[in-house]
Amino acid sequence: MATGIHPIDPARVLKKIQPRPLTPPELLQQRTPTSIRALRGLIKQASQRHRRLSVDIKKILRAGENIALDREVLLIENKNLQTALNNERRRRKQGKRMGLLNPSNPSLAQFFSPTKVQAAREQADANETAKIDDQARKEDMKLQRAILREQKQTELMERKEQREKERLEAAQRLGKEGTRGGLKEAYKKINSGLKTP
Q1: What residues contact 36, with CB distance under 8 A and at least 6 apart?
Q2: Residue 39, number of CB atoms within 10 A of its CB
Q3: Residue 43 · residue 65 · CB < 8 Å
Q4: Cα–Cα distance, 37 to 162 (Å, whole number)
Q5: What integer is the mean pLDDT of 35-47?
Q6: What percent of the chain has pLDDT over 90?
Q7: Comparing C-alpha atoms, which of 41, 89, 82, 91 is closest to residue 61?
Q8: What is the DSSP-derived secondary structure letter of residue 19?
Q9: Per-state percent for the chain, helix, strand, coil, to nearest 5
Q10: CA nearest neighbour of 121 among 101, 100, 98, 102
Q11: Is the pTM of this model over 0.85?
């Protein structure tokens, strides 16, 4: 027995298979532009095909061009920032000791088990979080001190205003009595009674 196409007539078999329709070449070339250069080329093609584009379409095209330009700038900036961040992370990771070396026998061969390495990493992470927590606590205390300083400042200002007000009232009362010597005595009494602790 031989193998092959059955029935022998290949045209009959090929009729049953539907050929895939070919994509027209102009549709293959029309892809959404992803760069500013491609967008400018598309704008140029559109303006050549349609000699007179409306003002609104020109504005839309200009806005699209600006957005594409901003996008490219942001992509480049993002890529550079990611690279800098990765370099910084790599640099920080390399510079930290794990504390696994035995200082009593530095010349002897030393072996580290994965559990020791993992424990050292966990300890380093714990130290890092403690450091961050301590920094946050210090910042919080600094903020609290600033708030207290402002409260004391406002209290001092209020007391000062109150003293001035009482001095003026006392001066007005004594001014009505008409004695100048009594004014000095009242002023001394007010000052001695209002001294702050």
Answers
A1: 65, 68, 69, 72
A2: 19
A3: yes
A4: 72
A5: 79
A6: 26
A7: 41
A8: P
A9: 75, 0, 25
A10: 98
A11: no
